Amino acid sequence: MSLDMDWVRAQFPAFSEPSLAGQAFFENAGGSYACAPVIDRLTRFYRERKVQPYAPYEASRLGGAEMDEARARLAAMLGVENDELSFGPSTTQNTYVLAQAFRQMLQPGEAIVVTNQDHEANSGPWRRLAEAGIELREWRIDAETGHLDPDRLDDLLDEKVRLVVFPHVSNIVGEINDVAAITARAHAAGAFVCVDGVSYAPHGLPDVGALGPDIYLFSAYKTYGPHQGMMVIRRALGDVLPNQAHHFNAGVLYKRFTPAGPDHAQVAASAGMADYIEALSARHGGPQTGAGAARKAHDLMRAQEVTLLQPLLDYLAARNDLRLIGAREAGARAPTVAVDLHRAPEPVAAALADHGIMAGGGDFYGHRPLTGLGIDPDQGVLRLSFVHYTSEAEVAKLIDALDAVL
């Protein structure tokens, strides 16, 4: 079943906002539009429940209940236990906190594997563990395609490796890595696994429980929600990592790695993400709640994106004045498309804006993959990214604008 695009776009107030009329949004990898249920819940919290939660009076009780609702519903959609899902201020900060916990647990001479395909948020914090005597082993991308070859990981694994860190999707390369297969290889070698899902989750929430990583991180604000970082930490790892929160929170898994108090309103508003996913599934004849609804929504989103992405990839691949980064088959990647123009991309992005296209140019915190691909990070790339609410007409408009500008 194809997406009911009129219904989908009606769930996002941005599409009826006069100031955005006539503009097609192609910088979703930097942050998606928020869906109406998130906006409604956030507004209600600030109007009615902006008090310290979990006290016995009604406004406080309702505020705490809504925070608990967000965690429970989203954890179920991700295929994990309620308390294995934590909220924090951002994925970058969540990763730094986790890296500090590993710094305390690991011993000098033990090793971790990092990649040069990652966004800096899932690379820099882990690389700093070298300051504590932890050995860093870099799993490197193919310099031409950006592909992260799982067979090359085997050469890096041995009994010293305690952690393997990699992205579900690189925000530069766009290719979807096989999380389940890579995780199985790492676990077989006795290593924990941390996956950056920031560039995958907006295209459909994954079943983290089935995929198997010990840590899975993503950003709600790129997944139609508020500006929160979300992290799954499976209990087997979370219980052995040193507590990073107040000592009296050590026994609560979802609090152990959030040393600062969470943003109550934004945590509560995250339940709106579940509202939207369930409504999307139900609208298209799928399950109305829980993991089943998440799977149905995931498949609907991916099918829409693959259909729209292939014409854009074909158009870019046919040009001889640019370099398309990553796979040319839409089914193998997310609709996050980086293009090396062999010149500064910002003026091109500015010219596209004159044609009603919202896109960006730069390094996108991807210095390492850009360098690995032989692209100067100071020059950067033009990035064109969309999600399931993007229309066929908007992709056609993008291609026409690229023709005019390039």
UniProtKB/TrEMBL annotation:
Coiled coil: none
Claim: Transferase is one of the keywords in the record: no
Native organism: Sinisalibacter aestuarii
InterPro entries from the UniProt entry: Aminotrans_V_dom (IPR000192), PyrdxlP-dep_Trfase (IPR015424), PyrdxlP-dep_Trfase_major (IPR015421), PyrdxlP-dep_Trfase_small (IPR015422)
Pfam families in alphabetical order: Aminotran_5
Domain Aminotransferase class V, first and last residues per copy: 25-237
Name of the featured protein: Cysteine desulfurase
Keywords: Pyridoxal phosphate
